[in-house]
Amino acid sequence: MSTLRDLQAPGCLLILPNAWDAGSARVIEDAGAEAIATTSSGVAWARGYPDGNALPTRVLAAAIAEIARVIRVPLSADVEAGYSDDPRAVGDTVAAVIGAGAVGINLEDGAGTPDLLCAKIEAVRAAALRADVDLFVNARTDVFLKQLVPAERAVEATIERAKRYRAAGCDGIFVPGLADASAIRAVVAGIAPLPLNVMAYPGLPAAAELRTLGVRRLSAGAAIASAALGRARSRVRAFLADGRSEPLFDDSVAYGPTNALFPRS
Hints:
By secondary structure, the chain is α/β, with parallel strands linked by helices. The chain has eleven helices and nine strands. The protein has one domain: Phosphoenolpyruvate-binding domains (TIM Barrel). Strands 1-9-8-7-6-5-4-3-2 form a nine-stranded parallel β-sheet. Strand 4, helix 5 and strand 5 form a beta-alpha-beta unit. The longest helix is centred in the last third of the chain and has 20 residues. It is globular, with a radius of gyration of 19 Å. The mean pLDDT is 97.
C-alpha cells in the first residue's frame, strides 16, 4: 500500500475525498480513493457538535478508530487547531488519533499565532516519534480562507508561515481558499520542496491544471459532506410534502452491495 508521502511525491497529485464516518469512508474507498481524509465539520456534525474545535477529543479518537477499522487506504485526520492552545495537550490528542489508526493529520493556525502552531507541530512530531509512526503532518494556514492579511500580502504571508512551519517539522502545507492560478504557482515555488495542498473551491482550476502548477494534494474539504446533507434535506422536504416513494431511491446506493462492503468484526 502506498503511503501518504508516496502519494504526494513530486509530479503526483493526490485527490483526497473527505469522509465523516465509517460508512462514508468505506464508500469513498470503494469508489477508488487512494487515501481518505476526514472533514472536521462533517465529523462534528455527524456527532452532534458544531465545527470549530468543539468536538471532545475522545469523540474524535473514537470516530477515527471507526473509520480506520473499515478501510485499508491511508487515513489522514483533521484535528482542527488541536482542540487546545496547550501544545502538550495537542500532542496528547494526536497521540490518541495515531493510536486510533491515522497516519496523517491536518493541524491549522486559524486565528492563532504562527508561534503557537510551531509549538504544536513540535509537540505532534514528538508524539509521533514516541509512537514510532511516520506521521504526515499537514500544516494548514488560513491566510487566504480567513483573510488574515490584506489580499496583496496573502501570498507573501503564506510563504513566510510555511517556512516557519517547515522548520518546526511539518511535511506539507495546506492553503484552503487559495484558488488563483498565478498565486498557486507563486506559493508552490515559495514553499518548495514542501508539497502544496489546496481545497476544492469555486474557481479552483481542474486537476490537470493543478498538476501542471505543481500542486500535489487536492482535498474536498467539507464539500462532500455538505452535499450529502443538502441532498438528504431536499429529499426529506419532498417526502414530507407529498409522501412519494420513487424520488427517495434516485441515485441511492443498493442495499446488498453496500452492506457487503463492511466487515462483521
